[in-house]
Amino acid sequence: MKIYDQLCAIANNAGAPFLQHHSEDLFEIDREQLLFDSQQGSNYIWVLKSNGCGTWFFSACDDNKWRESIISDDDRCFHISCTSPNQGTVTEIHSLSEFKELCSRFDKQTKSLKPRRTSLWGGACRHLGY
What we know:
The protein has 130 residues and is of the alpha+beta class.
């Protein structure tokens, strides 16, 4: 099953208060990340916010120290492991220690992946001489 479909099913089954506001986080931003940036070997953390205000979607190799402070006990956190673009597994993370372990395990592995798309902003800046 496609990862995006799995995330939509999780969000739909979660019910209130999850995803009451900022649903574009899932339906636009997270979807775009999965369709255009994910690749074999990518690992992400996806957080369904318990306050109803959208989701967090970020690479498992990012510096996650600041993210630990914004994840509340009632949020639902998931590890996404990609086998190809928008394909792979979604597994729920049940504790902060499991979250930290996942992020440290994938730190070096994910940083070695080459991006599937490049920023147009960088090319425009070089063209304009910035």
